[in-house]
Amino acid sequence: MAAFAAHTSATSSHYSPPGTAILLRSRRRAFPTRVSCSAAAAAGNKTVVIGVAADSGCGKSTFMRRLTSVLGGGAEPPRGGNPESNTLVGDTATVVCLDDYHSLDRAARKARGLTALDPRANDFDLMYEQVRAIKDGRAVDKPVYNHVTGLLDPPERVAPPRILLLEGLHPMYDERVRGLLDFSIYLDISDEVKFAWKIQRDLAERGHSLESIKAIIEARKPDFDAYIDPQKKYADAVIEVLPTQLIPGDDDGKVPRVRLIMKEGVKHFAPVYLFDEGSTISWIPCGRKLSCSYPGIKFAYGFGAYFGHEVSVLEMDGRFDKLDELIYVETHLSNLSTKFFGEVAQQMLTHADLPGSNNGTGLFQTIVGLKIRELCEQIVAERDAMTADAVKV
Amino acid sequence: MAAFAAHTSATSSHYSPPGTAILLRSRRRAFPTRVSCSAAAAAGNKTVVIGVAADSGCGKSTFMRRLTSVLGGGAEPPRGGNPESNTLVGDTATVVCLDDYHSLDRAARKARGLTALDPRANDFDLMYEQVRAIKDGRAVDKPVYNHVTGLLDPPERVAPPRILLLEGLHPMYDERVRGLLDFSIYLDISDEVKFAWKIQRDLAERGHSLESIKAIIEARKPDFDAYIDPQKKYADAVIEVLPTQLIPGDDDGKVPRVRLIMKEGVKHFAPVYLFDEGSTISWIPCGRKLSCSYPGIKFAYGFGAYFGHEVSVLEMDGRFDKLDELIYVETHLSNLSTKFFGEVAQQMLTHADLPGSNNGTGLFQTIVGLKIRELCEQIVAERDAMTADAVKV
């Protein structure tokens, strides 16, 4: 167990591997099977709804580009609408940014001393009502929060898509909205990496000082800890980004260690595994058959508990430097839900310009996209089968 | 690399994993290919000769029973001969104990202050001459060292078998004898385990005191270090037995950590691997699909250098408690050279009464037996093909 435990020592992780090497076969069955997908299908819903929660500056927009690409048709801002719209519309999926449900504009938040993270600055009643309507197949007039002006612009029409991606600070915060999600993902960036990323961006691009960056992060932290972070316990999949363990003392975030935590027992979601499902493995693919640049690549796979739920965990530390490294890794992972050999590599290459395309963030975002595509297809297929049965009866 | 390095920290091991995760593809080719088998075949030899070196009390006789069982037909003491004969004769293999080449009997060694480990107490000229003769297809009259009396008994006749197993203290000591070996194995028991085993046996069975056992080991050590241990650098395969790392502070040798070190580039010998050849892996099979008793089972696989030679290494720490654990592990190993599914488990079960049948010593001895069987078959096939070609010409 030592090999994996060494991997999972990040202070910010809530994932814990099993305490000993002993696990009874019956253990798996002790966890209840989630039936959100089938419940949604049974209710005759038309749109599959996916929630993606994360703090701002944590790569949600990159994730959305990867997801909509995998789901098919990509997604662009609505034509002829508000140029500051946060919505993306594609052939298959529509992305709605939950910032649009801010109930207080920037000035009002400032006046009341609230951050955008505070639930009191957001309208969950409307959020629930509109997501419910879309799921039922009805178009809605959704508010638009203008990030440039900080004002609430006139609403825009959102038609029910095949797949609705709800991204933002609070997709799993409100119990009613959470109940509408067919699948949920939490992007969990560790404090060290978040700090390194913000420094890279704000110091270079925005001219902030190191002290002011620290102050901004510290000011947001209480609300983040109170309202955003607790949502991860509801997520079906969590992507954790942690500092590398391949380079001692490295903390610039350029070589991340990324963990994909996958809840067991979620219908239509079969966790990805490495070599031997349900065992504990560490794997350094770099060797005789695959040459890697420093500091190499290391994978770990295992299982354990995450907020009391049984989970499978896949971890990648390091960076891909060459295409053959990525393809080599892809061929050794199972349950990827690809439709053809090399689809993960193809997706990563298509978006080579996006941040994280050479490391575990891009890899696991792409894999989550493939898993969601399969989940949606299965929900639709199941619904169609139920409809056909109902017609027969 | 940390996961495997943690595995390979035994003080007594000469195996070192690669220093970094970087290894050029061309590295493998830098090691010369050994051609001992083809050289033997080219010379038209009839008997395949395998050397097995180890200190006394290290399980050579158990190993011989496993080997002759795998090779086919087992092996028994010669009928109607000296009841103290050290030779075993079977349908396929004959085992010759190199103690028979002691040139000094017990009294003479005592008089000259020499141990049996000292080359001066052994007749390497005769050993070479007789192994050469057997390899050439001629029977020999081999001396017999009587372990009961400590005297040299009259010689016994040894006919050339298909496979000659030379087991003893010095099969790789003399350069000429070493040159006759088609494959060589060294059983390397770490000092901690050797001490634990001797205590178990001698304290319980022979009534020695702890102090006297320590004194006996210490007295043998200089000669062991000078004449026996250095042979391991010539071995094609080394079985190392080390203390477990699964139970902190455990040193009673009951749960061993066993390492199979396999030299690369040996003709007719394809090293066993776990999941992905040429990478670095640690694997705890116990988990969702396989339940294990405490302290569980842990495997490691990797590559590195051993006395300057490139090697692959498979390690097992822990014990099999149930048959399904053994079969599960067998199904995940590759290049086992089995002839049918489950042959390793079947062999282990057949000899369930032998020491080590529930741990890595029995597993790796059995695997080495399978590899030797295949190697011998390939040498014979190659020789037959060459003979057929020669006839045509």
UniProtKB/TrEMBL annotation, chains A, B:
<keyword id="KW-0934">Plastid</keyword>
<dbReference type="GO" id="GO:0009507">
    <property type="term" value="C:chloroplast"/>
</dbReference>
<feature type="domain" description="Phosphoribulokinase/uridine kinase">
    <location>
        <begin position="49"/>
        <end position="247"/>
    </location>
</feature>
<keyword id="KW-1015">Disulfide bond</keyword>
<dbReference type="GO" id="GO:0042803">
    <property type="term" value="F:protein homodimerization activity"/>
</dbReference>
<dbReference type="InterPro" id="IPR006083">
    <property type="entry name" value="PRK/URK"/>
</dbReference>
<dbReference type="InterPro" id="IPR027417">
    <property type="entry name" value="P-loop_NTPase"/>
</dbReference>
<dbReference type="GO" id="GO:0008974">
    <property type="term" value="F:phosphoribulokinase activity"/>
</dbReference>
<dbReference type="GO" id="GO:0005524">
    <property type="term" value="F:ATP binding"/>
</dbReference>
<keyword id="KW-0547">Nucleotide-binding</keyword>
<comment type="similarity">
    <text>Belongs to the phosphoribulokinase family.</text>
</comment>
<dbReference type="GO" id="GO:0019253">
    <property type="term" value="P:reductive pentose-phosphate cycle"/>
</dbReference>
<comment type="pathway">
    <text>Carbohydrate biosynthesis; Calvin cycle.</text>
</comment>
<keyword id="KW-0113">Calvin cycle</keyword>
<keyword id="KW-0602">Photosynthesis</keyword>
<keyword id="KW-0809">Transit peptide</keyword>
<dbReference type="InterPro" id="IPR006082">
    <property type="entry name" value="PRK"/>
</dbReference>
<keyword id="KW-0067">ATP-binding</keyword>
<keyword id="KW-0808">Transferase</keyword>
<keyword id="KW-0150">Chloroplast</keyword>
<dbReference type="Pfam" id="PF00485">
    <property type="entry name" value="PRK"/>
</dbReference>
<keyword id="KW-0418">Kinase</keyword>
<protein>
    <recommendedName>
        <fullName>Phosphoribulokinase</fullName>
        <ecNumber>2.7.1.19</ecNumber>
    </recommendedName>
</protein>
